[in-house]
Amino acid sequence: MITVYGSPMCPDCVACKENFDKYKVEYEYIDINENLKNLKKFLKYRDSEPVFDRLKAIGDIGIPACIDENGKVFTDWEGYLKEQGYEVIEVETQGQSCSIDGKGC
Fold it and tell me: What does residue 54 show for φ and ψ, rounded to 5 degrees?
């Protein structure tokens, strides 16, 4: 099973969840906004895993962050679905944005 760290305020996280649900990918979703414990768990990964280095450098949060059953951390959930043979579906996010400038995540 995959563990997904995300936020309902993040359009990429919403799209990840909807796609995983559609294709019945087994996952546990951990909302980093629900409590500080969840946020601290995510930050432990973000502060120590090299996969986040590029994302931090460009000002991204790094969610959704996925951890597979072997402990591999990845943020390219779309690539994961494509590797499984699924087509990523577009999800309408009604203009939400994660970036400070409002142009993306």
Answer: -65, -40
